[in-house]
Amino acid sequence: METTRWERKVILPVLAGALLVPGSIVPVQAAEEDESTQSFMPSAGIESVLEESYETDVKDNIDLYLVPNEEGEYFNMAFSDTGEESFTYIRSAPDEESGWTGKLYEDSAVEVMEYLDGWTRIRSGEAEGYVPADTLITGKSAADCADEYLQETASVTAYTLNVRDGQGTDASVLTQIHKGEEYKVTGEPVEGWYPLSVGEIDGWVSGKYITTETAYSYGETKEQEEQRIAEEEARKKQAERDAREREAAQKEAEEAAAETAAGTSAAGQAVIDYACQFIGNPYVWGGTSLTEGADCSGFVQSVYAHFGISLPRTSYEMRSAGYAVSYDEAVPGDLILYEGHVGLYMGDGQIVNAMNEEKGIGICNADYARIIAVRRVI
């Protein structure tokens, strides 16, 4: 279903005092009625219509006007039946050789204007012309299937609304639609997100930025189809441009991140290379000397001081230094913090640290105890 084909539902009233027959209108006296009396048609009027209908071999058309519906909604309302085809041509004259002025789609509602031999003159939306009679559902059959032709449409209330490939703002953007545009709702909403058909794109939009309405859909003129196709093509090209721009921006961000990570990794490795020079030196509680002795935080503080980076004195305070990363993201030089302890990540799941008085400065597994935080300071 395309955007330009949507119209508001129209209730078509019974034409009081007249009946449509092939190629003409036969006047019939309108009956009076009160609260206890149903409206009726004079027998003479019905007989004259039936007689002429039999003569013109279109008796089946009479069912259209004898539908017992107080509102008269189906008096001259019908629905498309395109069979295996997706549309029927609306032609300028009642023959297959005439030019087409519009298209009647498989889910369209129409106003019947005149019955001819094998053809019906109709109006559907702004499209008007002739279609083969066998492509329409009329009379009681139209009344029976009317609910099947009702469709839900969504009207965009935001200036620009993203159409995504799933429910939620984490889903990828497929295209964008704009304020005032209307689209077919293709299914039931899921957690406030509505599935829409936007040209050839099926996606989801947030229900916060649309209003929905149940209505019939209608055919379209040749000019409307041309405009719709042009708009869809423009939207498709814009979506492709947007996708390329997003891809380029993502690639640029990834390259920048990789470059930053490479720089960080190189700088961090220099820190580790420097720190490992002091493996085997003593552990001294409260010490900050890399040669004479240091405790865990004194060791880390003194190593980074060599590179001009000032860190807090205690492991507790170091939990706020730099910025947090996950352990999975840890690179050489990152601070691995425990309850009352800190070490420098070397890579491959190991840390270099001032361990204790027995072992001094050495290497151990990073997961020897529960990790409280990982901080990056370069």
Terminal Cα separation, in Å?
56 Å
Number of strands: 25
Strand content: 25-35%
Query: For the largest beta sheet, what order do the strands appear in spatially?
Result: 20-25-21-22-23-24
Oligomerization status of the protein chains: single chain
- The averaged pLDDT comes out at 83
Spans of at least 5 consecutive residues whose pLDDT stays below 50 are: 1-72
Biggest sheet features: 6 strands, antiparallel
Shape: rod-shaped
How many helix segments?
Answer: 6
Rg over C-alpha atoms, rounded to the nearest angstrom: 39 Å
Which range best describes the helical content: under 10%, 10-25%, 25-40%, 40-55%, 55-70% or over 70%? 25-40%
**Pairing-aware structural class of the strands and helices?**
alpha+beta
Topology:
Blueprint: E1 18-21, E2 24-27, H1 43-55, H2 62-65, E3 77-80, E4 87-91, E5 100-105, E6 109-115, E7 119-124, E8 127-132, E9 136-137, H3 139-149, E10 151-156, E11 160-164, E12 173-178, E13 182-185, E14 193-198, E15 201-206, E16 210-215, E17 220-221, H4 222-275, E18 288-289, E19 293-294, H5 296-305, H6 315-318, E20 323-324, E21 335-338, E22 341-347, E23 350-356, E24 360-365, E25 373-376
Antiparallel strand pairs: 1-2, 3-6, 3-9, 4-5, 5-17, 6-7, 7-8, 10-13, 10-16, 11-12, 13-14, 14-15, 18-19, 20-25, 21-22, 21-25, 22-23, 23-24
